[in-house]
Amino acid sequence: MQLFQKFGPGIGIDLGTANTLIYVKNKGIVYNEPSILAKNTLTKKTIAVGHDAKAMQGRTHAGIETIRPIRDGVVADFQATTEMIQHFIKALTQKSLVGRKPFIVVSTPTHLTSVERRAVIDATMQAGAKEAIIIEETFAAAIGAGLPVWEPTGSMIVDIGGGTTEVAILSLGGVVVSNSIKIAGDEMDRLITKHVKNNHQLVIGEATAEHIKINLFKEEENGILDVRGRDIVTGLPRTVKVTASEIALVLEEAIEQISLVIKQTLEQTPPELASDIIERGLILSGGVALLPQLERIISEITQLPVIIAETPLESVAKGTAKIVDAPNIIK
Questions:
Q1: How far is CA 43 from CA 198, 250, 257, in A?
Q2: Which CATH architecture does the domain made up of 148-309 adopt?
Q3: Nearest Cα to Cα of residue 240 among 205, 203, 215
């Protein structure tokens, strides 16, 4: 690992389906932007990345398309992923936050195939890294959440991101049992879109569905949100009122499936480690962990204490940061 020390400040990247977070040694988390880019469909040139590209989503014409290169936790578009990482590294270099050819730590889902892992490394190297190393997303989230992953005791992390939910039991610096399911934030958005279409005869886009998921539950228990979209019958713009209670029922299906994966993981866990989990509970990380009442619902279904990480959105990024700061710990 001494090789990494020669390239100056390193970078930790949480390459998420919904958002990409980037940590720079001695600088902290310097980027937290949507994992999306916009391209000119004729020239294939990238014209916007991150927040600027997301602002275009659902509002483009035939000459512009928005692309989410990471789908369900894996690299769905290799070229777009490379360009997105290149954009972020170039921005860091221009701001003198890192030098040329930094070493980069990238978090990836636990169950990537060797081909998918190679694709992430290749994309990172082509984006300008001198060296790149991979760390499993659940392991990074556990480190970032402050779990005692190096001790001979069981720790459980449930990371609910945009594309996947990753569940893992860790002990003695490794993953003992892990499972994942392609049900997370994006699937919740799809369920909301389907519900609004079927029950309110209104077509809405991904951005509107995400807005409902994030903002509706900020209201009081029986909160109401005005939702704008296109009427299925007339084709004209229309506004409907959506309540927190109806959306809670819509999301119930996804939460139950996530809870089932948690149960399956516990069933595969060695008894001694399972007793640790029963005593100490599990940690929720990822953006979806911020949904109000989610920890209570999962606790009721699994009969386990559930604790939300201090900064659930940043848990994985903080984990990669600790590896960047002390790469020898992953020997």
A1: 38, 41, 42
A2: 2-Layer Sandwich (3.30)
A3: 203
Structure tokens that stand for 309 in this block: 């990480």
**Rounded Cα gap, residues 46 and 83, in angstroms:** 8
User: For the segment 5-47, what is each residue's pLDDT rounded down to a tens digit?
Assistant: 444 568 899 988 888 999 988 888 888 999 999 999 999 899 9
Could you give the residue range(s) of every CATH 3.30.420.40 domain in the chain?
2-140+315-330, 148-309
What does R_g of the chain's alpha carbons equal in angstroms?
Answer: 20
Nearest to 105 by CA among 193, 38, 25, 183: 25
Asked if the 2-140+315-330 domain carries CATH number 3.90.1260.10, the reply is: no
pLDDT tens-place string over residues 76-113: 888 888 888 888 888 887 777 666 678 889 888 777 78
